[in-house]
Design goal:
Elements: H1 2-14, E1 18-23, H2 29-43, E2 47-52, H3 54-64, E3 68-71, H4 83-115, E4 119-123, E5 135-138, H5 151-165, E6 170-173, E7 198-200, E8 216-221, H6 228-239, E9 247-250, E10 259-261, E11 265-268, H7 273-282, E12 283-288, H8 292-301, E13 304-307, H9 314-326, E14 330-331, H10 339-347, H11 358-369
Parallel strand pairs: 1-2, 1-4, 2-3, 4-5, 5-6, 6-7, 8-9, 8-12, 9-11, 12-13, 13-14
Antiparallel strand pairs: 10-11
Length: about 375
């Protein structure tokens, strides 16, 4: 077994593999969690072609550097604060999403045939696979939650993933196996899918825990689609005077300049990856959305947090509720947020106590891909 592992590792390093890596463009989360894998593939001299779209593709170009990039939009994300409207939008956009999926499949199949890739890795995109070459799917959502908590719809979502599992060599789940996990029912306690056939590899984060002194009391990260992002920013700025201590606010706006609000509040329009990693390590508590990539970042950095899910994003609302019930993080709905009160409540939560190096996750991913 040991000899086989050493052989595969040496082969992996010596042989240049043509990799097609496809990344879902619903926010930056899929991109940031894929970056450690992409960097390792590059580091080992493999030839990379990356598919994504919009600002996510721009981010990947900036962070990855030399690679082939192809802009192929994926199916639209559906958001609404009202459950009935969200369900109606799902019905309306469903047929369009399937049309886009089929269109992309045809286009990507031609690309695969022309370029002769050795491996396909898809983070959250069902339109990128081939029956002819090993294809791998990365997802933490093996079961998709719905706004009504209807079990029938959740079972249907498992059936959907079960259908696609047959098209991929392996389903890679960036989470821990067993009870002490980060994603809850999204990838555990499944009814139709055999969890032993899923490859749980641990959390994926583009950040590493540092030794910085925690001299920032609260880091507030403002993000999300409009109009919810601007509503969140306004609510934060209206209430920030009531928060004690040294505070840093990041707006996620590349073109906006930083500014000081009094002696204790610093506002940044945008932070680079390195700057963000440093600021997060220096922070005692983080106020942010409850996307799964953020949950993984918080786990790897061992930070306490106040989670404010984007209204209408069912997955974020579930994750916030899941971690609230476990006592790992405190959460509040955006419309109900009282910043000073909720920060004090968040300080009482335990945070996620795990000592985990992301390099271990990347090695597990490579063990699956190059097995």
């Amino acid at each position: 077994m040991k000899k086989s592992y050493i052989y595969l590792t040496v082969w992996r390093i010596l042989v240049c593999v043509k990799v097609l890596y496809s990344v879902c463009s619903w926010g930056f989360g899929h991109a940031t969690r894929s970056l450690p894998i992409i960097r390792k593939l590059k580091e080992e001299g493999n030839h990379l072609t990356i598919i994504s779209s919009g600002e996510t593709l721009d981010l990947l170009k900036k962070e990855v550097g030399e690679a082939v990039f192809i802009d192929i939009p994926d199916y639209p994300v559906i958001i609404s604060e009202e459950s009935t409207k969200l369900f109606a939008k799902g019905l309306i956009y469903g047929s369009f999403s399937m049309w886009r999926l089929e269109k992309n499949l045809r286009r990507i199949s031609k690309l695969v045939e022309r370029e002769k890739f050795d491996i396909i890795i898809s983070d959250g995109r069902y339109d990128t696979y081939s029956r002819r070459i090993p294809s791998f799917f990365i997802s933490h959502q093996v079961r998709i939650k719905n706004p009504f908590d209807l079990r029938l719809l959740e079972i249907e979502s498992e059936l959907f993933n079960l259908f696609f599992m047959k098209r991929f060599k392996a389903f890679i789940v960036p989470d821990f196996e067993g009870e002490e996990n980060l994603s809850g029912d999204l990838s555990h306690n499944l009814e139709l899918i055999d969890e032993s056939k899923l490859c749980y590899v641990g959390p994926l984060s583009d950040f590493k825990k540092g030794e910085e002194h925690e001299d920032i009391d609260v880091l507030i990260s403002i993000s999300g689609p409009e109009p919810y992002r601007s509503d969140f920013e306004k609510k934060i700025m209206d209430q920030i005077d009531g928060v004690k201590g040294k505070i840093v606010v990041t707006l996620g706006k590349i073109k906006e300049k930083g500014r000081k609000l009094g002696s204790d509040v610093t506002v940044y329009g945008y932070l680079s990856r390195e700057e963000r990693e440093e600021v997060m390590n220096r922070s005692k508590l983080i106020v942010s959305r409850s996307g799964y990539s953020t949950i993984m970042d918080l786990a790897v950095l061992n930070k306490k947090a106040l989670l404010v899910p984007t209204p209408g994003q069912v997955e974020q609302e579930y994750l916030a509720r899941y971690h609230m019930e476990r006592g790992t993080f405190y959460s509040v709905k955006q419309r109900d947020m009282d910043l000073s009160r909720d920060i004090e409540m968040a300080k009482r939560a335990s945070g996620i106590k795990v000592n985990w190096n992301v390099n271990k996750t990347v090695e597990k991913v490579f063990d699956v891909i190059f097995a």
